[in-house]
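Ligand: magnesium ion. Inputs:
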Amino acid sequence: MVGELKMQNIVKTFGPVTALRDVTFTAGPGTVHALCGENGAGKSTLMKVLAGVFPPDSGEIFLDGHKRIFTHPRQALEAGISMLYQELDLAEHLTVYENIFLGREMRKKVPFVIDRRAMINQTLQNCKRYGFDLDPEATIRSLTPGQCQIVELLKALMKNARVIVMDEPTSSLSEGEAVQLFKIVHQLRKLRLTIIYISHRMEEVKILADQISVLRDGAVVAAGSASQMDIPTVVRHMAGRELKDYYPVRTSNPGPTLFEANHLSSEEGIRDISFSIRCGEIVGMAGLVGAGRSETARAIFGIRPLTGGSIRLNGRPVKIRRPSKAIKKGIAYLTEDRKRSGLCTILPCSWNMTLPNYPRIGMRLLLNLHKEQKLCRSYGEKVAVKWASPQAPVCSLSGGNQQKLLIGRWLMARSEFLIFDEPTRGIDVGAKKEVYHLLTELAAEGKGVLMISSELPELFGICDRILVMRRGRLVGDLNTRDTSPEKVMHLAAVEE
Ligand SMILES: Nc1ncnc2c1ncn2[C@@H]1O[C@H](COP(=O)(O)OP(=O)(O)OP(=O)(O)O)[C@@H](O)[C@H]1O
Ligand SMILES: [Mg+2]
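Predicted complex:
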């Protein structure tokens, strides 16, 4: 069939790990094909095989019925296969049109002279054609994550992409931007493109997908039309079991005040933030993208200096000027962007886990390697991270497993006050449930948890209280029991 993509009997191993075992996958033009599966199921690997990043050990790829062999991403691109990666691939200091034409600039008839006007015009025409609202002359640095994604998409379309792979495209978008992306996806479908859409958010799969394939442990366990597969069925196939008790039942019994922020202001634009957290409490922090939630966390953890205000821990004033001091005082911070500011991806899992924990494993003269391994294995087990061994490099772990590893790190640090910034971003439904249970256990042990999240259902699922931020200020401190998602949204969005 014209425009049909077929991947047949694909096998891909990484040393001892079999990432894909005999996967057959077809997608037709004018459809959105959702690829679902738990963390480490093989979704990204399958798409990287398609995009020519990894050659398969065996198996074949057919496009329009013709067999294609891609040994380099460029060949896949030329065949019309574009992959939008989660980490942006744009040159930040260049403009939109410069990025789009990078390496294939249009030239005037005079030798060596670049035709800027022509490139700007062509970018504009294409924006119009696809209904994108972009300024070709804006620099990438000045754009929001959603706009950057549109630039990537435009770049792919202008290279005549016919198959577009989106790997968790909404994970760094605000709600409004996500809605816009959905509209774009609908439009690309109308233009007869093939969209392969990977997401852990089942609501998105429900809204967008025409076809669904479910991967589990590197094999396709279900595939078919979305109208014949409801979400609970998809989730059951993903997990291979029923998922019950999604949110843990909590008996909250808060103790004395653990952490107090008094009138905090920072260079990054947060102003006059005051709140407290008691031992055994899980407190959520809601707000739109840019409301100052991560900025608050960074100020508390000593990454950005405070310009005003003070912090108390266990009733005593503390001054935190660097993260190392925060860690020593028993504060943990799981950042929202694990690749950029959480992990050293080329280093082994064990090192990443023990990095802030050296004092506990005898750093004075030599590292106690035996103790390090033992601790890593035990905390790895506690958070159920899937790795070949603690020595495997972090980049060999799937996204969700990287997140679990980081949670393990802070459990190992035995921190008293834990700040989790979007802890369930990019992790599958089963792993989310595990994270909720882990947070609840921490609280039951008397620790204090501040959970920043853009997903209201999870805040309402496990938090005792919800703080609401807007434009750098704290605009609400609500008991979860006495409030509603509508109230929180209203506070987060509306200017009085
Ligand atoms: N470069 C690599 N080296 C070694 N193993 C790898 C590599 N890339 C992936 N793997 C392994 O292949 C398996 C599938 O990983 P993949 O990244 O495809 O999962 P995924 O379904 O995309 O998961 P997630 O939802 O967490 O992103 C995992 O066991 C992973 O550890
Ligand atoms: Mg992935």
